[in-house]
Amino acid sequence: MWHQDDGWGVIDSDATPGGAYVDHWSVRVEAVVAAADHPSVRPMGLRPGTDVEFEWSTADPPVQGCSHIANVVWPAGEDAPPRPRGAFSTALWHSVGDPDSDGLTTMREATLDEFDVPAPDRPPLPTAVGTVRFWRGEDGWGVLDSDATPGGAWTHFSEVVGEGFRTLTPGQAVEFEYEGADQDGYDFRALNVSGR
Question: What pTM, to 2 d.p., does this model score?
Answer without folding.
Answer: 0.55
